Every structure is written in C-alpha cells, then in structure tokens.
Amino acid sequence: MTRRVVLYIDSLKTGGAERVTLLFARWLAQEGWRATVLTRHGPSRDFYPVPAGVHRAIEPSDPPWLRCLGLLGFPLRVLRLRAWLQRHQPDLVLGMTTLPAIKLLLAVRGMACPCIVSERNFPPLKRPGWPWRLLRRLTYPWAHLHLVQTESTGRWLAQHLNARPQLCLANPVAWPLPRFAPDPDPTDWLARQKVGADQQVLLAVGTKAHQKGFDRLVAMFALLRERHPQVHLVILGMDAVPYHGVDQQAQLRRMLPQASHSLHFPGRVGNVQDWYERADLFLLPSRYEGFPNVLLEAMASGCCCVSSDCPQGPAELIRDGVNGRLLPNDANPQTWADVVSALLVDSDVRRRLACRALEVRQRFSEGRLRQCFMSGVLQLVSDD
Predict the structure, then answer these.
(1) 3-state SS, residue 268
(2) Mean pLDDT of all residues in 330-352
(3) Where are the domains of the chain?
(4) Nearest CA to 178 among 57, 274, 291?
C-alpha cells in the first residue's frame, strides 16, 4: 500500500524554505510515497516548479466573510485544514516554517498521523507576533519530530519550547544546481547595463533586504567604489514589487546617490549558478540565517565567498582564510570594504579560497543527507 505524505507551506515563492520543501517532496516521491505539497496561496505566487511525481494542492480559499474576521478566523481555518486532511488521510504530514507548522499541529491534533515540523530561521532572531509565539509554545511539544538545520537552533528549541525529539539536518546542495525559467544569461544581461565582460562583479542573493543585510552591503559598496570605481554590485532575488509595503530596491538605491548605476537588480532567476560563476565575489552580510542556502550554493559553484558570522550557519560552512572569509557579525562597512578590496586586488587568493570552497559538494551532498532524512522518516512511521 502506498504511503501518503502532505508537506504544508504558505506558498512556493522564491526562498530557501520553499526549495527545501520541494526537495523533501521529491525524495519522498522517489522512495515510493504519494507526496503532496499543500500551500495556502495559489500558483500566482509560484516561482519553483513542482518536481515530477509530486502532487500540488491548494487550500480552499477563504470566503469573504472569513477574510473579514482576520486573526479571529484562525480557528475556523484550522478546522477547514483538518477537514481537508481527513478527506485525504495522509500517513505523515510535514509543516515547513513557523505559522504553517503551528496550524498543521493544531489541525492534526488527535488524528492518527505523525507530524514533523521544521523551523527555517534561528528562532530568537526572527520572532513571530505574540499570538503565534504563544501558540508555538503550546503546539511544538506535540510534534513527533523537529527537523533543525543547526545544533544551536535545536538547543534553543529544546530549551525554550520543549521541542523534542530532533533530527539535525543541514540543507543539502544538489550539484549541478537546478535550472529553470527565467534564465537570463548574466553576461548578456550585464552588457545591456553597460557592464563589460572584463569588469569585476560582486554578487548577493536574497529577497529580504533587512535580514540579508543589504543596507550594510550597499554602505560597504559606497566606500569600496572610492578605490574600485569600475566594480559593480548585483543583487538577485528582489523584485521591484514592494515587500510589506517597502520598495526595497528604491530604498537601497537612495543609499547610493552618486553611483546607483553600478547597483543592479536582475530580479528572480532560475539559473543562479551562471551568476555565481560570473561573479568575482559572493557576499552575504546577513544579520541572521537559518542555514544559508545561497552561501552553500555559491561555494559549490566555485565562487570566492565573504560572509558575516551571523547566527546561524555561515560558520558551519566557512573556515576563515581557508575556504572563504568570515567577518564578525558586527563588522562595520569599512572593515568589509577593506576585506573585499584586498580580494578584488589579489586574484590568487580568490582562486585559492574558491577552490577550497568546492569541498562543500561532498560535505553537504544530497545523497548523504537524503539517506539521513529518509531514515528519520521511516523510523517515525514505523514507530507509529
């Protein structure tokens, strides 16, 4: 009899949690499970394609009267999700990110269905609103298994939320990186922005400017251009559409009034490996992470990387001066500019760090981490 699993997440927009959700679904489908990815939002928000063999489902949309209730309608939304699950009778459910995990734990309470949940950021640095914090404290002990990306995240969850048992599972890197549309050629795209193939390019990737520290990055870039006036900065992932009412691109451009022509936003791309390979340096000045997929992928692409030593993840990937540069999380823009400038000047050091960075392909190989994930899942359903 085919086992059924439902993986629940808000949407399939661009982001690390969404990519990993689809990766888990693909693994399960390839192991013979009937895997369904259930989202609250429909295809209009999709960025990632659903893997072959994985089913896609969308929660029934809220009627107007329920939308008007706002947060007060949350119990009814939980009941609607529970009814959907009772109709489909999964053998296992998996909630990705905080709010879907809470909602899923409430929905399956009392059902004969093990529930796995996975936080995707370091909890104390990305705090949900107070109702969700209370509900998280109530529901997380109910989970049959917590997937955590780092040991420090696991310790925090165990200490503060009694979140046990746990499986520590770093994000894998699938090599070569997946490709899908849109896939603009970076050389051609930059040429249209009057950036020559011989000009140096700094690359960053992300959708959330504050978390990723893009304000710190642009402040550094303003200082750097005093020594390297021909260098360009490319930030992938951010659309021109406002994020929570903020035009992030315009906000960053205002920080660079004299050189905004050197700051580029290609938007979301499905061929990020090509952009890593075009870049002279990849920069990650994040304030916090869960486990930085973009840093892992940049290193696997053979890109010389500079990252902040933020909680959590970069220090598990980079050994400073060995396979990249790791700067203190409170390093100021001048320190960043000095380190980046030295690397732009010294191509031998860049090549040496980039060459050693390739080791992450083995350390975080998909095959090894897939085996760990499937072992945890099979033990869970067998125990149940």
Answers:
(1) coil
(2) 98
(3) 4-172+365-383, 186-363
(4) 274
The yes-or-no answer to whether 4-172+365-383 and 186-363 have a common fold is: yes
Please name the residue ranges forming H helices in 207-247: 209-212, 214-224
Tokens 């996975």 correspond to what residue? 118
How many Å apart are CA 45 and CA 61, to the nearest integer?
14
Backbone angles phi, psi at 198, to 5 degrees: -95, 0
Long-range contacts of 81-90 (CB under 8 A, 24+ apart): 81/107, 82/107, 82/108, 82/111, 84/38, 84/59, 84/60, 85/6, 85/111, 85/113, 86/111, 88/4, 88/6, 88/36, 89/4, 90/4, 90/5, 90/6, 90/36
Average pLDDT of the chain is 94
Fold of 4-172+365-383: Rossmann fold (3.40.50)
Phi first, then psi, for residue 152 (nearest 5°) are -65, -40
Signed CA dihedral, 200, 204, 209, 214: sign only: negative
Q: Which residue has the tokens 């705090």?
A: 127
Look at residue 368 in the predicted model and tell me its pLDDT.
Answer: 92
Q: Report the SS3 class of residue 270.
A: coil
Residue 100, pLDDT above cutoff 90:
yes
Distance (Å, whole) CA 373 – CA 24: 8
Can you give the pLDDT at residue 384?
A: 65
Q: Which fold has domain 186-363?
A: Rossmann fold (3.40.50)
Over the stretch 40-83, which tens digit does the pLDDT of each residue have?
999 999 999 999 999 999 998 888 888 898 888 999 999 999 99
Q: Quote the pTM value.
A: 0.91
Q: Calculate mean pLDDT across residues 197-214.
A: 96
- The 10 Å Cβ neighbour count of residue 115 is 24
Strands 4-9 and 115-118: unpaired
Cα separation, 290 vs 189, in Å, equals 31
Asked whether the CA dihedral 285, 280, 259, 207 is positive or negative, the reply is negative
* Per-residue pLDDT reduced to its tens digit, 152-203: 999 999 999 999 999 999 999 988 998 999 999 999 999 999 999 999 999 9
Residue of 321, 266, 314 whose CA lies nearest to 290: 314
For residue 263, the cross-strand partners are: 233
Instruction: Give the whole-angstrom CA distance, residue 353 versus residue 380.
Output: 41
Q: What are phi and psi of 182, to 5 degrees?
A: -80, 145
